[in-house]
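[Meeting: bench + compute handoff]

Bench side (C.D.) handed over the final construct sequence. Compute side (W.E.) agreed to return the predicted structure before the next meeting so the bench team could plan truncations. Sequence as handed over:
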Amino acid sequence: MITRVLITGANAGLGKETAKQLASNSEIEKIYLGCRNMEKALAAKLELEQLTGRSIFEVLIIDVSNQVSVIEAVQRLDCSVDALIMNAGGTGGKNFNKINSNGVTEIFAVNLLGHSLLAQELLKAGKLLKVAIYAGSEAARGVKEMGMKRPELPTSSEEEFASVCNGSFFKKTQDATVSYGSIKYMGALWMSAMARRYPHVKFITMSPGATTGTEGFNTLPLFKQYIMKSMMQVMLWFNKVHTVEIGAKRYLQGLYNNDLESGLFYASQKGLTGPLCDQSLLFPDLNSEQYQENAYNAIQRFL
């Protein structure tokens, strides 16, 4: 039974909607809203209490792009959680390819490195008991509909993955979507490696799908924001993407569907919405234990 859940990026979009849907389950006793900004977090908490009629939400200040913040958040967490939903992410801000103090790009820090540290610190402290969900993306296999190519990693070696972490693999690109897919691909491999190391916890990479109503594009330049959000709205009209409610339901499938196997990456079978499937059926390289270990070891270099 899942009774306590921690969600990162919980003050808006998919994170907040997931908290709302979880609260409709009477078995849920506590939902920790992992947020960077206290003001926005408290506003989300109040809104969720009003929408659900339940006082089960607690704010946990955490900035997954900052390792000190992650470690302090784990220390402040007052009890263990049954489930962790690693939802925070996005395009990494205007300076997405800037190297931070840990030697990785901002986009890598917010999408993967911070969550890697969070999961490992929770496990080390005995504070993560049953399920870990990582927000995957169809971008890991390329998204033709949005002009995103499938990541091309010639060797998938540890060194190559390390170059994804520090951004050198992408040279001086000014397009955050170029690195985003490779980071999400690497995240799925990392989750598979974690599943082998911690067999008592279920590790699921779950893409929420292409989802309207999120803040994922808000850190892009204004013109790029306009283009991407307009494209999403048009695609919604043609049922090529879906709403935030459906995206959040995918996370809940990761939590409750016993048919989903630990260590696997689930996303749309075709396109950006529709039925889920194990992505290794489409791309067998996801099953490579060597690639998984290489991705895991590359991440460990920066923790």
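W.E. noted at the follow-up: The two ends are 32 Å apart (CA to CA). C.D. will use this when planning the next construct.
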